[in-house]
Amino acid sequence: MDRAVLSLYVLIFFSCTSDNSLRIVRESKVVFTSGQEGYKCFRIPAIIQSPNGDLLAFAEGRKEGCSDTNDIDLVMKRSRDGGVSWSALQVIWDDQLNTCGNPVPIVDHITDQVILLSTWNLGEDHESEIIEQKSTDTRRPFVQISSDNGHNWTEPKEITAQVKLPEWTWYATGPGSGIQLNQEPF
């Protein structure tokens, strides 16, 4: 996929009445466009349908370019019409010059909350330095929660001690969307 434009593909299914066949129409909608809304590049997309039916599209908003380091924010857009149109950009987490990324949204169908997992590291620390343990800090996972379909979010809460072993260096929660199991694992 071209890094200049991050697109979402919406599939629309409908039945043709003349011959009872199922037709699939693929329509491409641009959700995030590099060079717009204060960001030179968008990467690491994820999308979910919130409990009220809105589509929530997440990405990393990279201010300086497509590099994995420096000032990277977690951003989101909303569609209330199945992906036909999208809202203005909403910044979910901006930690100044640091890297906030790898969004993984999950819908909790019991509480109707949207859970957002992500990672953080110092903007000056490069992946190779973190892996070699030569960085100033390390990569840390965080969680945020929305109880109103993604309109408002809790402050990021660090969960490193619960999910990352001390000897692990690089850590990434995404890209992708998470799922909730409706039964106990094996």
Question: Main traits of this protein?
Answer:
single chain, 186 residues, Neuraminidase, 4-stranded antiparallel beta sheet, 2 helices, 10 strands, globular
Short description:
With about 190 residues, the protein is mainly beta. It is about 5% helix and about 45% strand.
Plain-language structure description:
The chain is mainly beta. It has a four-stranded antiparallel β-sheet, with no helix packed on it. It has a four-stranded antiparallel β-sheet with strand order 7-8-9-10. The longest helix is centred in the C-terminal third of the chain and has 5 residues. The radius of gyration is 18 Å and the shape is globular.
Secondary structure: elements and pairs:
Blueprint: E1 5-15, E2 22-33, E3 41-49, E4 55-62, E5 72-79, E6 90-93, E7 99-108, E8 113-121, H1 127-131, E9 140-146, E10 157-158, H2 160-163
Antiparallel strand pairs: 1-2, 3-4, 4-5, 5-6, 7-8, 8-9, 9-10
Structurally, the number of domains stands at 1
Give me the strand/helix succession: EEEEEEEEHEEH
Alpha-carbon distance between the two ends: 36 Å
Q: What is the percent of helical residues?
A: under 10%
Structural class: mainly beta
- Shape field: globular
Strand order of the largest sheet: 3-4-5-6
If you compute it from the alpha carbons, what radius of gyration comes out, rounded to the nearest whole angstrom?
18 Å
**Overall CATH class:** Mainly Beta
Q: Kindly identify the CATH topology.
A: Neuraminidase
Mean pLDDT: 87
The low-confidence parts are 7-17
Quickly count the helices. Answer: 2
Taken as a percent bin, the fraction of beta residues is 35-45%
CATH architecture descriptor text: 6 Propeller
What can be said about the biggest beta sheet?
4 strands, antiparallel
Number of strands: 10
